[in-house]
Amino acid sequence: MFPATQLLTENTGIRRDGTQLLDQTEFTDLCREKHFPVLVDVGHAQANGGDLPRLIRDLGPQIRGFHLHNNDGIHDLHNRLRDGTLDLAALLPCMDREAPTAARIIEYSRPAFHGDPLMEDIAWLTEADKESHNHPSPSHESKYLFSLLFLTAFVPSLFPHIEQR
User: Fold this and answer.
1) Beta-carbon neighbour count of residue 57 at 10 Å?
2) Residue 109 lies inside a defined structural domain of this protein
3) Residue 141 is part of a domain; what is its CATH number?
4) Number of other residues whose CB lies within 10 A of the CB of residue 136
């Protein structure tokens, strides 16, 4: 059903909720030692007080994707990209430099963020990406659209047992 599927290791869990599996140093060390391909969830790192530029620098060649969302720096809220304590625009140059081919996946869990809000965030992210490069970056624009369309159009139908909030 899912050809060419690659398993990625994500920095998952939130310290405050007691669900954090590994702190940033432990996660980095494990991924380096085992040569795991990585998906960096920027919201999880932010909620756990992580050093995102350092995490991205330390694991850059292994990073295959980023889950992009924002929060209050404490909880895993999956807020819109500019609604929280993370300055994603300031992080984009580091992402581009250290993991230029990594997919960028906007990860929202609330249907209220789908439709127009999602399209607004795609447009903002595409423009912010262009500004961070000082030139257009069509390869990332198409990655945003593909990943987002997959998440919003197919995940609910693939996983009907998961309650949509």
Assistant:
1) 14
2) yes
3) 3.20.20.150
4) 12
70 lies in which domain range?
9-157
* pLDDT tens per residue, range 37-90: 999 999 999 999 999 999 999 999 999 999 999 999 999 999 999 999 999 999
DSSP assignment string, 105-129: EE----GGGSSHHHHHHHHHHHHHH
Q: Report pLDDT digits (tens) over 99-156.
A: 998 988 888 877 777 778 888 998 898 888 888 765 444 455 445 543 443 444 444 4
Please give the helix or strand (H or E) that residue 51 lies within, else none. none
In a domain, 140, yes or no: yes
User: Per the domain annotation, does 74 fall within a domain?
Assistant: yes
Residue type at position 140: H
More confident residue, 30 or 111: 30
CA angle 156, 159, 165 (to 5 degrees): 50
Say yes or no to pLDDT of 98 above 80.
Answer: yes
Query: Is residue 2, in this structure, part of any structural domain at all?
Result: no
Number of domains in the chain: 1
Which strands sit side by side in the sheet containing 63-68, from one edge to the other?
A: 9-10, 38-41, 63-68, 103-106
Tell me what pLDDT residue 6 has: 85
Report how far residue 66's alpha carbon sits from residue 56's, in angstroms, rounded to the nearest whole number. 10
